[in-house]
């Protein structure tokens, strides 16, 4: 399989025997004496905190060239994307974007390459098959398997979409939040965070863009999400 790389047979066998991990967990390259990979939740939101409005639209969140170039730099270190069905069906567009956008800008072309190079894990009970390379389909989200993936990965991991992210947040798995806030208020829709958790965060970075978008980077102080 495509993701089995730089893993010795002896280490792979040992991990499988002790942890009984799924094959996509073994795809993360093992390396001694290093820190655990971060699980990062990235979202593009309105000022009132929605990733989509009440009609499901998010065209107001389309980044311009300056913002997309910055997003590319944030995404470049990511080795694996975790998606739910809806987010995957939105993002799989990038599998063929190079063919459908022959005159794409530099930032768009760069993002296409970044997305192609990363591994993807899709969690869905209804999706019959995946339609992109380097992609696994899992029927349920197993927090312990994701913890093992974090322990073994040599690159950071990204969780996409508010529903899957909410599950990861409640399990205490998310380490960092990358938030791009757009200068628009939509009044309702799909909120980027679950309503039933409380987290203590520290601001690690921030940036303003000419379009009025503001980037906020937070790290988690307490690793376990609690109910308010």
Total tally of structural domains: 1
Largest sheet: 8 strands, mixed
Number of helices: 8
User: Low-confidence spans: pLDDT under 50, at least 5 residues?
Assistant: 1-21, 23-33
- The CATH homologous superfamily: Dihydrofolate Reductase, subunit A
| Beta-strand content | 15-25%
**Residue-averaged pLDDT:** 86
Strands of the widest sheet, in order across it, are 5-4-3-6-1-7-10-9
CATH architecture, by name, is 3-Layer(aba) Sandwich
Structural class: alpha/beta
Question: How far is the first residue's CA from the last residue's CA?
Answer: 44 Å
State the CATH class: Alpha Beta
Number of strand elements: 10
What do we call the CATH topology?
Dihydrofolate Reductase, subunit A
Radius of gyration, in Å, reads 18 Å
Can you tell me the overall shape? globular
| Percent helix | 25-40%
Can you offer a commentary on this structure?
The structure is a single chain. With 228 residues, the protein is of the alpha/beta class. The chain has one domain (33-220): Dihydrofolate Reductase, subunit A (3-Layer(aba) Sandwich), CATH 3.40.430.10. Helices cover 30% and strands 25% of the residues. The chain is built from eight helices and ten strands. It has helices spanning 9-19, 23-26, 65-75, 85-91, 97-100, 106-117, 143-152, 162-170, and strands at 39-45, 50-53, 78-84, 119-123, 135-138, 156-160, 176-181, 189-191, 201-208, 214-220. The strands form two sheets. An eight-stranded mixed β-sheet has the order 5-4-3-6-1-7-10-9, with helices on both faces. Strands 2-8 form a two-stranded antiparallel sheet. A hairpin with a 5-residue loop joins strand 9 (201-208) and strand 10. Helix 3 (65-75) runs parallel beside helix 6. The longest helix is centred in the middle third of the chain and has 12 residues, at 106-117. 28% of the residues are buried. Mean pLDDT is 86; it is low at 1-21 and 23-33.
